[in-house]
C-alpha cells in the first residue's frame, strides 16, 4: 500500500476543509512547494494535489502552483479539481502531472473519461466522492442519484484502472476511514482503489492495510502532527 500525502489548494494556500465545507477551512501553509518537499523528505513517492477552487468553479488558477510543485519534486504527482475538458487534461500532463483525476466531469460528461483513457491510459483516474453511498459532485455541494459502486463499475468498463474513493463524512474529520465502504469497493469492482478521508493515526493506516486498497491519502493528520508520515510510509513498505 502506498501513502499519498495531500496538498489541497485554495487561493494558492495549503488548506484542509472540514467534511468538504468551504466555509470551514484551516490554512496550513502559504508555500505549497515547501510543503511538498517536506512530504517528499518523509519518504513519500506520490503526491496528491487537489485544486479546491477548480473543483468548485472550474477555475484553473492554481495550475501555476501545480507546475511549480512538479518542477521541484522528484515525487510523482496526481491532481484533480476543475478538470472539465481534454484541453485541461493536456495542459496538466504537459506540466508534469503523472496522473489526472476526473471528478465532477466524469459524472456529467462520461465521454470525456472514454476519450481521456484512450489518449492517456493509466494516467487517467476517476475521483469518486460519496455521501451516504451516492456520488457527490461540484466540490461536494451536489449529490447525484448514482451509487458509488455502480459508477465505479461504469468507469472500469471505460478502461479506468484507478479510482480515488472519498467518503465525505470522514474527510477532514479525524474519525477514521470508512473501512466497510473501502472493502466493498475493492471487492465489488476489482479496481485499484485509493482510500481518501478520515486517516487520523497510524492505527487507521494499519486498518486499511487489510482492505486491499492500493493506497491511502492523508491530509489533516500529517499537518496536525497526529500521524507521522515517515512512520506510515515505512509501515506500508514493510507490509
Describe the structure.
- With 239 residues, the chain is α/β, with parallel strands linked by helices.
- Helix content is 40%, strand content 30%.
- The chain is built from 11 helices and 12 strands.
- Strand 5, helix 4 (86-95) and strand 6 (99-102) form a beta-alpha-beta unit.
- The model has no long low-confidence stretch (mean pLDDT 92).
Essential attributes:
8-stranded parallel beta barrel; alpha/beta; 30% strand; 11 helices; 239 residues; TIM Barrel
Provide a brief overview of the structure.
The chain has helices at residues 32-41, 52-57, 63-72, 86-95, 104-108, 110-120, 148-157, 179-189, 202-209, 220-224, 229-237; strands at 2-10, 13-18, 21-29, 46-51, 76-80, 99-102, 124-131, 134-137, 142-147, 162-167, 192-196, 215-218.
Give a count of the beta strands, DSSP E runs of length 2 or more.
12
Shape: globular
Strand content: 25-35%
CATH topology: TIM Barrel
| Contiguous uncertain segments of 5+ residues | none
Q: Mind summarizing the main beta sheet?
A: 8 strands, parallel, barrel
CATH architecture: Alpha-Beta Barrel
How many helical elements?
A: 11
Can you say what the CATH homologous superfamily is? Aldolase class I
Strand order of the largest sheet: 1-4-5-6-7-10-11-12
CATH class: Alpha Beta
Instruction: Tell me the structural class.
Output: alpha/beta
Amino acid at each position: 500500500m502506498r501513502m499519498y500525502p495531500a496538498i489541497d489548494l485554495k487561493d494558492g494556500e495549503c488548506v484542509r476543509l472540514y467534511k468538504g465545507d468551504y466555509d470551514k477551512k484551516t490554512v496550513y501553509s502559504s508555500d505549497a512547494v515547501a510543503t511538498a518537499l517536506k512530504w517528499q523528505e518523509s519518504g513519500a513517492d506520490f503526491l496528491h494535489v487537489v485544486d479546491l477552487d477548480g473543483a468548485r468553479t472550474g477555475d484553473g488558477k492554481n495550475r501555476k502552483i501545480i507546475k511549480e510543485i512538479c518542477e521541484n519534486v522528484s515525487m510523482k504527482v496526481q491532481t484533480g479539481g476543475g478538470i472539465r475538458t481534454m484541453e485541461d487534461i493536456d495542459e496538466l500532463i504537459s506540466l508534469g502531472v503523472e496522473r489526472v483525476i476526473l471528478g465532477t466531469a466524469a459524472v456529467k460528461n462520461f465521454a470525456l473519461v472514454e476519450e481521456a483513457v484512450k489518449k492517456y491510459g493509466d494516467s487517467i483516474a476517476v475521483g469518486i466522492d460519496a455521501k451516504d453511498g451516492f456520488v457527490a459532485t461540484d466540490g461536494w455541494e451536489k449529490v447525484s442519484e448514482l451509487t458509488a459502486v455502480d459508477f465505479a463499475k461504469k468507469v472500469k468498463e471505460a478502461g479506468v484502472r484507478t479510482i480515488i474513493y472519498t467518503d465525505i463524512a470522514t474527510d477532514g474529520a479525524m474519525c477514521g476511514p470508512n473501512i466497510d465502504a473501502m472493502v466493498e469497493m475493492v471487492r465489488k469492482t476489482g479496481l485499484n482503489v485509493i482510500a481518501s478521508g478520515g486517516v487520523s493515526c497510524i492505527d487507521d493506516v494499519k486498518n486499511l492495510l487489510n482492505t486491499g486498497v492500493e493506497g491511502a491519502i492523508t491530509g489533516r493528520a500529517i499537518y496536525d502532527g497526529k500521524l507521522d508520515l515517515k512512520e506510515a510510509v515505512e509501515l506500508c513498505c514493510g507490509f
